[in-house]
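COURSE: Structural Biology Practicum
ASSIGNMENT: Worksheet 4, Part C
STUDENT ID: 0417
INSTRUCTIONS: Below are two proteins. For each, the amino acid sequence is given first, followed by its structure token string. Answer the questions at the end about the second protein only.

PROTEIN I
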Amino acid sequence: MIKTLKSFTVLSLVLCFSSGLMTEAAERQMRKPPQEAYDICEDKNEADVVTITTPDGDEVEATCQLMDDELVAVPDNHPQRGRSKGNRG
């Protein structure tokens, strides 16, 4: 009985851990900017302002920012998600 309980506990922990890794990988993929955001900053410098045309035809101002050693256009009204997580009290 104890052996079965230990096996069940270990299996549960492995499944939870694996599920957490998959969720983290999916979140990282979801946060990645579209290729167009990289392309528009290709010949630019960090902090250069660019104009992005959305799929709806709207124009949005963005700033080229360094992300994972690549310049990417970040809309000026984009929330800075995840940056303050490590700084919480």
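PROTEIN II
(use this one for the questions)
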Amino acid sequence: MSGDRVLEGLPQEVQPLLRAYLKRVVPSLGAALESLVLYGSAVRGEFVRGRSNVNLLLVVANLDGEALRKLAKLHARWKREQVVALLFTPAELQRWATSFPLEFGELKEGHRLLAGRDLLPTIRLDGGVTSELIGREAKANLLRLRQRYVEGGATGEAALILLSLSMTGLAPCFRGWLRLRDRPIPAKTEQQIEEIGRSLSIDSKPLLEAWDLRCGRISPGPVEVPRLFDRYLTAVEELVRRLEAAPA
């Protein structure tokens, strides 16, 4: 399949980047390349230039020191283009999927094969996604939010960065929760947030504000940033409490 063919339907902003990446990286890896998959916002139709990463899953035959040094050279020019690659060997995929079913569930359900063979359909999510797992992920997100805000000096700059990071990290939890409850998963993340708000009876407005910030739709000033952070923090704390109280 040609490079242009595999890129059909993807956001116009990422197609030239991926075309150049495929032209450079695929021949360089040669037979060592097992699979190259695109996932995340570029596949879900929520890519925002300058804000979203281009998320890749790169499966290669081995990842010893020599292989990592080769990959580092290949990826040096792509770092500034926000290309981020998860690196695995074929044998590692199943083992890691068992440990991280939420993340690999996202990968299985929303990805685009760019080169090699698609290994994700063969992955089993033993134990699958549970209410306990989603609650644990949300708690870890809250702990990181608090810790990194303090480490960042509780500045407005730290708040802006952390709001986007935290919201991006919570989005798979929302989709996992809806999937677990056999509820339809709306196409857009903001619709998923609204559905989570209704499902758990929480105020979804601060979560929506953080998503709008992440997507570049709002630009709060220095006075509003701390208020937005406080509203978001309260909303995540309530989210965690509701997830803890929800039936398994």
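ANSWER KEY EXCERPT:
Q1: The radius of gyration is 19 Å.
Q2: The first strand starts at residue 33 and ends at 39.
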